[in-house]
Specification:
Structural class: alpha+beta
Strand order of the largest sheet: 1-2
Shape: globular
Order of helices and strands: EHEHH
Distance between the termini: 23 Å
Number of helices: 3
Largest sheet: 2 strands, parallel
Length: 68
């Protein structure tokens, strides 16, 4: 199964991590976006707890995994 999310901002990151935490490991989640559209910074008011939630869901560590 493949799932597509529109956008690459905070909302998409939270959606992707939540989906991945509940779905079987063989499901592919892809974010689609237009690189020519400037990013609308919505997530600035997001709680710092979001990093822990994303790590718990997909084992993404911003200190070591940002390069990927």
């Amino acid at each position: 199964m493949k799932i597509g999310l529109i956008g690459v901002g905070t909302a998409s990151a939270v959606s992707a991590s939540t989906l991945l935490s509940y779905l079987p490991k063989d499901v592919e989640v892809t974010c689609f976006y237009d690189p020519d559209i400037p990013i609308t910074h919505v997530g600035e008011s997001t709680s710092a707890a979001i990093y822990g939630l994303i790590y718990d869901a997909v084992r993404f560590d911003p200190l070591t995994d940002l390069e990927e």
